[in-house]
Recover the amino acids of this structure.
């Protein structure tokens, strides 16, 4: 009798243990499976959304060039950045890309609106457009933090380091510099000088340098560096001097260049003196020479916006513009000032960044995908992050 | 004698064991058979898309035919390194139409062992017909010389 009780007790204990372990193990297995399914769904969703962004022109197909464009324009029925005119995939429309530049004075689509257009409620995303390789100062400091240009009297020199995106040096990259500078003589007739330098090559450490003696002591200096390896090129624009960022907001839509007076001090009028588009052609050409008349003035009130249409300009694929303004700089007085735009972050690793920052530590299930895209004739890497919130 | 009489309890224990095994097996079987899309498949598909995108881009820029028909292997390697994600290794082989290899030095980035060890190697096949050479401003000449490109990709 006692033995039967023991047997039953043992049976109950074993059954209990099996039941408890099943209760623990089965949901864990299911949870792991659910996580896997979740991850796959996220990846699938990311691929579909990224394809929609890069391959679809959206609706209307020219939504980036709509004039006027309203903040979070409700006329956009479908979102996509692809160029409607391009015959091949992964060619992005610069007008549409500019509509994602937060702070664009000609209005833009904010993150929440784009998220809604893409149907991504409950998800977070980030879209980044990166150059195919990194260009930094020789010590690895990003160009946004420190200019690679040194000016010593009339001498201008630069040293840069070119690396692959994983940080390994890129030897034998061809670096061609074009220097745009203004004279420090603050006269009414002060002009611009454009110097095109012969190519230099990066050494096995990915470093290259060049120097040039200028004809005069320069005041504002912009150096355009075209860096290419195996004919895949990127463009870096860097200032030799602290750039004045409150002269004008630059925008380019269709064939029209639009300048807007920012809310900044000093509130003095400024005149558009020169406009130089930077294209994938090495030689820079003047697009516009101002007259310093009322037509070229930018000021508060009715002169707040300056716009000109240049027929066929879009077809030349300008990636940025360099502009010379006759403007007042606080503490220095009126002089020729160089500015560049329209992309806000011309100098850094990232040409463009939109959306929230993925927290890769906590968002362990964040999905990252990459594609090569072409904007204004240059190849970039588009990176898309998607995660569940 | 009593021990023999209590066999029924022991049989129940064995029954419970068997039932548990059957249940556990059923769960495992159900988990296997749920038809979950396997991660490697997605990984391969993603790498295939990246690889095709890169080759297409190089072709569109006119660089791929130039590199291949002029045998500019260093430039081809550099271009692929620049355009492919940095955590991807590649191995590119070019073949004539009859199946013989064009490139004798391997066009490779990364550890060759990774291609044999990894279970998930994406393979992209891309065809080129020729490399048109410019005769004058309006006239290009092209001879039919097809090449087959096999690009293998594996993530680090």
């Amino acid at each position: 009798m006692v033995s039967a009780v023991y047997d039953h007790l043992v049976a109950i204990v074993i059954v209990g243990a099996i039941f408890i372990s099943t209760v623990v193990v089965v949901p864990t297995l299911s949870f792991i499976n659910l996580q896997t399914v979740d991850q796959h769904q996220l990846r699938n969703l990311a691929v579909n959304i990224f394809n929609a962004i890069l391959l679809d022109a959206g609706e209307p197909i020219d939504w980036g060039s709509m004039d006027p464009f309203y903040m979070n324009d409700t006329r956009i029925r479908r979102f996509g950045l692809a160029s409607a005119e391009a015959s091949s995939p992964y060619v992005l429309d610069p007008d549409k890309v500019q509509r994602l530049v937060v702070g664009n004075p000609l209005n833009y689509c904010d993150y929440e609106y784009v998220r809604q257009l893409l149907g991504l409620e409950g998800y977070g995303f980030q879209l980044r457009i990166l150059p195919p390789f990194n260009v930094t100062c020789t010590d690895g400091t990003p160009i946004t933090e420190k200019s690679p240009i040194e000016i010593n009297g009339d001498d201008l020199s630069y040293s840069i380091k070119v690396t692959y995106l994983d940080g390994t040096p890129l030897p034998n990259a061809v670096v061609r510099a074009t220097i745009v500078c203004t004279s420090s003589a603050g006269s009414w007739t002060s002009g611009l000088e454009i110097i095109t330098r012969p190519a230099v090559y990066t050494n096995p450490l990915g470093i290259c340098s060049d120097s040039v003696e200028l004809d005069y002591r320069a005041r504002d200096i912009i150096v355009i560096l075209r860096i290419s390896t195996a004919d895949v090129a990127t463009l870096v624009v860097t200032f030799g001097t602290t750039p004045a960022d409150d002269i004008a907001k630059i925008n380019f839509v269709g064939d029209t260049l639009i300048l807007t007076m920012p809310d900044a001090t000093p509130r003095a009028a400024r005149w558009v003196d020169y406009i130089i588009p930077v294209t994938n052609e090495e030689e820079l050409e003047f697009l516009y020479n101002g007259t310093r008349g009322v037509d070229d003035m930018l000021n508060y009130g009715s002169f707040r916006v300056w716009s000109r249409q240049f027929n066929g300009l879009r077809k030349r694929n300008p990636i940025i513009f360099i502009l010379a303004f006759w403007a007042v700089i606080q503490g220095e007085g009126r002089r020729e000032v160089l500015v560049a735009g329209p992309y806000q972050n011309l100098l850094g690793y990232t040409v463009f960044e939109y959306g929230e920052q993925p927290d890769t530590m906590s968002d362990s299930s964040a999905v990252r995908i990459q594609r090569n895209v072409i904007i204004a004739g240059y190849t970039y890497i588009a990176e898309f992050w998607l995660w569940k919130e | 004698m009593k021990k023999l009489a209590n066999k029924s309890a022991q049989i129940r224990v064995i029954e419970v064991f068997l039932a548990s095994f059957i249940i556990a097996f059923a769960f495992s079987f159900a988990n296997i058979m749920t038809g979950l899309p396997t991660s490697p498949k997605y990984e391969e598909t993603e790498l295939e898309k990246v690889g095709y995108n890169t080759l297409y881009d190089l072709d569109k820029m006119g660089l791929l035919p130039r590199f291949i028909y002029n045998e500019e292997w260093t430039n081809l390697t550099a271009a692929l390194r620049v355009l492919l994600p940095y955590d991807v290794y590649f191995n590119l082989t070019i073949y004539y139409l009859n199946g013989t290899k064009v490139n004798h030095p391997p066009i490779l980035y990364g550890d060759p062992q990774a291609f044999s060890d990894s279970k998930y190697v994406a393979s992209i096949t891309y065809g080129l017909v020729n490399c048109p050479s410019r005769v004058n401003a309006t006239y290009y000449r092209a001879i039919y010389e097809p090449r087959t490109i096999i690009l293998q990709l594996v993530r680090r």
